[in-house]
Amino acid sequence: MSVRWPTALIVLAVAVAAAGCGGSSGSSATSSASSAVSSVAGSHVVQIDVAPSGFAYVKSSATVQSGPVVIRSMNPQSVGHDISLKGNGVDAHGKIVSNGDTSTIVIANLKPGTYTYYCSVPGHEAAGMKGTLTVT
C-alpha cells in the first residue's frame, strides 16, 4: 500500500494543477502547476472563500509559509468568481467558478513577501473583491 500512496499524490497533484490553472494568463501559474506535481504533498494550503453575496471574499487577509502553496477559493454564488494572485513577479489565476465549485492556484515556490489576491473577472477587483496574502 505504501507504493500506491505516492502515486495517488501525483495523480491528485496533476488533477489539482489542471483544474487550478484554467484561464491563466501568466507563465507563473503554468510553470508552477507543472513543478507542483512533485511538491504538492508538502504544500501549504490557504482557503480564501468567496462571501455568500456581493463582491467580497470571507476574509480580507491571510498568511502562509513560503514554499509550495495551494490557494483554494470556494464560490457559493451563482455569479462567477475566481482566485488570482499578483505581486513579486507572480501573476496566477484560477478558473472562474460558481455554484459551490472551487477555484485553485498551485504555486511551486512562493517567496516571502506581500501579495494581492483578487477576483480577475472584469470589474470585481475594482468593486473591492481583493485582499492581502502575507508570505512568511
Description of the molecule:
The chain is of the alpha/beta class and 136 residues long. The chain has one domain (4-135): Sandwich (Immunoglobulin-like). It is built from two helices and eight strands. The strands form two sheets. It has a five-stranded mixed β-sheet with strand order 2-8-7-4-5. Strands 1-3-6 form a three-stranded mixed β-sheet. The longest helix has 17 residues, at 4-20. The model is unreliable at 1-39 (pLDDT under 50).
Order of H and E elements: HHEEEEEEEE
- CATH topology name, in short, is Immunoglobulin-like
Number of strands: 8
Fraction in helix:
10-25%
Query: Beta-strand percentage?
Result: 25-35%
Taking Cα atoms only, what radius of gyration do you get, to the nearest Å? 14 Å
The CATH architecture can be given as Sandwich
Structural class: alpha/beta
The averaged pLDDT comes out at 80
Number of domains as seen in the coordinates: 1
Supply the CATH superfamily name. Cupredoxins -  blue copper proteins
The CATH class is Mainly Beta
Strand line-up in the sheet with most strands: 2-8-7-4-5
In terms of per-residue confidence, which ranges show pLDDT below 50 for 5 or more consecutive residues?
1-39
